[in-house]
């Protein structure tokens, strides 16, 4: 039996989502920009999908741009806003624990002459509202703050930041939130939080890879990053990934419709996993905060190399991650490093990330496997 606990990296597609996509690959395959009947039919479906997506997040259709996923949405939001609002200033605020899709994008802008303030997290992996407030300047054109951190599950104070910015008189600062790890886990609407731009990725919520959205509040000045045939209201050209979009929207509806039950279930499983690990394994440090998102549990097993543990667990069909999937091939996690973990704690860190597809028997069996492999490793090292 495979025990997949790497759902922050990606999730398994729901069966009905795969069926929906198949329909658009095999039957409704026309280009939505084509003016014949087949094209018009697909265009109608795309319009419907945009409306359904907008309804889910309390937006209007014009505010939804379909993209290829989180990385593209992050790039589009950051580059698009700063390039279109050059006169507003050249200062950006972000955090030092963002996903590389944000960090590497602002780093490139830094090389082009933008000034970037990186807010540091506390030991729980949370940046403070006060540090945001004191970093804000007249010339801050963009604040890019993630909602839920992908490595620890820590939740950033985006509601406070968004409301503060939207109430601030004469503020020219756009507020962008990477909600890739919070969509379907935290019940919120961008407009209620004062968010101007927000990215969501399909493959983190049991939808297909290669699809996502950027929510762009009406009135936001943004420059297109991909130019061409003018699709997606001219903001993101390129023939739309219809099977991906249709599957994504179906998965998003399931995520939002079942959010309460899903979060309760995943939280219960995470608490169980944490309890089993704390009960049975000595010398550990839990790196995820108590009040973090429901699906991520990051734990350091001291004296154990996370990478070795990951590979020994995979031999027993247990799949976890060190750091995030995108950065796990590099050494160490920038997020845990920023939280002030010691080299030993960094070295032994494992991220367990759960979904509604996990169950109690998997958690119990998975925790037993972790215990077995940690004990074996420590025995060998002691010899
Ligand atoms: C917080 C966060 N932002 C952005 C991304 C990138 O999303 P995608 O894989 O859809 O490009 C990820 C993926 O791990 C993520 O966790």
Mean pLDDT reading = 96
Q: Poorly predicted ranges (pLDDT <50, ≥5 residues)?
A: none
CATH topology of the largest domain: Aspartate Aminotransferase, domain 2
Named CATH architecture of the largest domain:
3-Layer(aba) Sandwich
What small-molecule ligands were found? pyridoxal-5'-phosphate
Question: How many angstroms separate the termini?
Answer: 32 Å
Organism: Peptoclostridium litorale DSM 5388
Protein name: Cysteine desulfurase NifS
InterPro entries: Aminotrans_V_dom, Aminotrans_V_PyrdxlP_BS, Cysteine_dSase, PyrdxlP-dep_Trfase, PyrdxlP-dep_Trfase_major, PyrdxlP-dep_Trfase_small
EC number: 2.8.1.7
